[in-house]
């Protein structure tokens, strides 16, 4: 059976992954220094759905030949408690280390170490640190920030003891930034002290992430190298679509390719979704018509309904009203304010917040729009009112 030429809903590698060579080359160069204590920490910054997590997963693949480097991806999305983050970091480190080295016996020793009451009996430092961590985790009085520090110390002890180097990729890092500067400062202090560990912080709240790198007041000021993940250019998307269609022997005229690329607007996510819809509609060996492209777009929006609904629900009432107004084509703050029936002062403040999180952008001074055109279209369809047509 022929496998589908497109993948939706999860990060992609191999033939399903296009471009990002320059970004990966730079990341590899920054990370590669870790073996000589000469690595730099980096910040991977890009809008939602542009392919950050895929870049991280491809970095893992590229690091496969490096037997002494253990890459670890931690998804920080929606983690409310610092203790949860600390546990996740430790678990992912152990899991990634064992997967890379095949040292299965280590896990058994850790489980034993956690149950050991006489800590002194543990000869190996990482096991002792792990036991400490488990103990502190169970103690209700342990301060949450210090749990993060403990987790990071354990991870470093693992690297030292096993003579490996760790690349810790904290995905959706904006959710860690929310904990505030005090927490970030403590994380920074440990990061700086670590010789065998380097970090890639990835996030989609573009302005928030950039402030982390460039704002003088940021605890990470001048400590991170930015690697922007931009939308793909149209030619790249077109070439990718053609290649993928051809693996399924599908015929698609240039004008249709052009149309799909335009609908995708440089988001690899939408290119994959439209491609998959078309593949499901016409099947291997079939031909793509203009009507089918339009229908694929409609079906894609329908298919994203639940996801957009959830996402939209994460905003405050005022933010939702503003997004609806922007989707209706109100672009200036004064127009938005009129539509939302609120003083312009409140509107401007919220517009700035939305910009900081990369949800809206300002193509020109005094003009705003929603960055994701498919989300904007979904909102427009949802809130279009008969009274205003
Ligand atoms: N380089 C690429 N080539 C082809 N498709 C890609 C590429 N990067 C991402 N995609 C597609 O886009 C989708 C989203 O990618 P990914 O999850 O990596 O993005 P993200 O920026 O991490 O998104 P989010 O901000 O939602 O976490 C993937 O499921 C995949 O279909
Ligand atoms: Mg992601």
Topology:
Blueprint: H1 21-32, E1 41-45, H2 52-62, E2 69-75, H3 82-101, H4 105-115, H5 125-138, H6 144-162, E3 165-171, H7 174-177, H8 181-193, E4 197-203, H9 206-214, E5 224-228, H10 234-247, E6 251-252, H11 254-264, H12 268-282, E7 287-288, H13 290-303, H14 305-313, H15 317-327, H16 333-340, H17 344-356, E8 360-364, E9 367-370, H18 373-383
Parallel strand pairs: 1-4, 1-5, 2-3, 3-4, 6-7
Antiparallel strand pairs: 8-9
Helix pairs in contact: 1-2, 3-6, 4-5, 5-6, 6-8, 10-11, 10-12, 11-12, 12-13, 15-16, 15-18, 16-17
The chain binds adenosine-5'-triphosphate (ATP) and magnesium ion.
Adenosine-5'-triphosphate (ATP) is lined by residues 7-12, 16-20, 46, 48-54, 204, 268-269, 272.
Principal-axes shape call? globular
- How far apart are the first and last residues' alpha carbons, in Å? 49 Å
The share of residues in helices is: 55-70%
| Unreliable stretches covering 5 or more consecutive residues | none
Mean pLDDT comes to 94
Instruction: Give the number of DSSP strands.
Output: 9
Which ligands appear in the coordinates? adenosine-5'-triphosphate, magnesium ion
Number of helices: 18
């Amino acid at each position: 059976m022929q496998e589908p030429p497109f993948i939706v809903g999860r990060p992609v590698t191999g033939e399903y992954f296009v471009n990002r060579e320059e970004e990966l080359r730079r990341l590899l160069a920054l990370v590669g220094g870790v073996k000589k204590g000469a690595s730099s920490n980096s910040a991977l910054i890009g809008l939602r759905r542009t392919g950050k997590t895929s870049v991280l997963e491809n970095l893992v693949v590229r690091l496969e030949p490096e037997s002494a480097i253990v890459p670890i991806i931690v998804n920080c999305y929606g983690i409310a408690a610092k203790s949860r983050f600390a546990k996740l970091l430790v678990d992912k480190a152990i899991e990634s280390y064992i997967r890379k080295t095949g040292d299965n016996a280590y896990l058994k020793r850790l489980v034993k170490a956690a149950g050991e009451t006489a800590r002194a009996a543990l000869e190996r430092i990482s096991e002792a640190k792990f036991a400490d961590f488990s103990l502190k985790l169970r103690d209700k009085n342990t301060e949450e920030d210090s749990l993060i520090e403990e987790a990071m110390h354990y991870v470093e002890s693992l690297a030292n003891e096993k003579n490996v180097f760790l690349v810790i990729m904290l995905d959706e890092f904006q959710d860690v930034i929310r904990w505030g500067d005090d927490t970030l400062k403590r994380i920074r202090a440990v990061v700086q002290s670590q010789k065998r560990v380097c970090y890639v912080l990835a996030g989609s709240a573009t302005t928030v992430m950039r402030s982390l790198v460039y704002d003088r007041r940021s605890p990470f000021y001048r400590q991170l190298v930015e690697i922007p993940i931009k939308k793909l250019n149209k030619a790249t998307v077109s070439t990718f679509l053609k290649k993928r269609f051809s693996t399924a022997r599908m015929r698609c005229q240039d004008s249709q390719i052009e149309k799909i690329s335009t609908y995708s607007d440089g988001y690899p996510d939408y290119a994959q979704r439209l491609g998959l819809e078309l593949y499901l509609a016409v099947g291997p060996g079939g031909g793509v018509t203009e009507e089918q492209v339009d229908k694929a777009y409609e079906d894609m929006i329908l298919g994203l309904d639940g996801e957009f609904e959830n996402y939209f629900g994460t905003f405050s009432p005022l933010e939702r009203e503003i997004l609806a107004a922007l989707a209706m084509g109100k672009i200036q703050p004064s127009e938005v304010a009129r539509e939302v029936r609120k003083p312009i002062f409140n509107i401007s403040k919220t517009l700035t917040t939305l910009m900081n999180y990369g949800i809206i952008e300002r193509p020109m001074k005094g003009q705003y729009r929603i960055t994701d055109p498919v989300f904007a279209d979904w909102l427009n369809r949802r809130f279009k009112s008969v009274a205003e047509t």
